[in-house]
Amino acid sequence: KDHASARYIYTRLTNLTRLIFSQLDDAVLSYQDEDGQRIEPHWYVPVIPLVLVNGAQGIGTGWSTDVPNYDPREIIANLRLFIKKQKMKPMRPWYRGFSGVIKPAGKGKYEVTGVCEATDKGIEITELPLKKWTQDYKEFLQTMLPGSDKPSKMQVQDVREYHTENKVHFVVKMNDETMAAAKQQGIVKAMKLEGSISETNMVLFDHQGCIKRYKNALEIIEEFAGVRWKYYEIRKKYLIDKLTLERNLLSNRARFIGMIVTGKLIVNNRKKDDLVK
Known about the structure:
The chain is α+β, with helices and mostly antiparallel strands. It is 34% helix and 21% strand. The strands form 5 sheets. It has a 4-stranded antiparallel beta sheet with strand order 7-8-10-9, covered by helices on one side. A 3-stranded antiparallel beta sheet has the order 5-6-11, with no helix packed on it.
């Protein structure tokens, strides 16, 4: 009764999920109750802070947040430093598959640029800045075409698309005069292939459900590690208690069998009431 509908043929739990959310934690999580039925926990305790892997962006009542993505390998390396009580290393935002450039531009700020190349006939664009969608950029390029409803100052001759499933690829054809103007202004700037990332508005709910502003990613890692460490201790105690109970049960079974073998306990031809006594 708990399986997905037949139309969801690709819906399944990936093998990676249980590496991030350990099955050993299931017994020690705090579960919610809905109409007398136990449902999902109030929150899970993954092995790494996923908010730094996936990032977060949003607006709420009186607050907003913008948490960049970071490299899981760097996060794991810093967690290992934390365990060894060593100083953690600063991290730079990282996005899987992004081939552009992310470079510092002041405290907690970064400049992001896409990838483009000048050719004999125009400009080839093979990467857009982060958080700039392909369709939006296509509409921007179309304003440069002749006959556009909202014509741009820079006019081009043609725009072609050769995208793949995972990669953007625009080919913009322009005359020599337009190309010279773009180079003078800076091709990246002229083609609006610039963006920015900020680490100055990292606002999240902590493990107690309180809103908190974090100075940087390392502060998030440090707080996460404290909670994760606590749950390792809770899990350890639970497993010790569980194994102790199993040991006592097996020990009593062995003692029972031993008493029968040695004749100290006779169970044959005896009434059940006598055995219970």
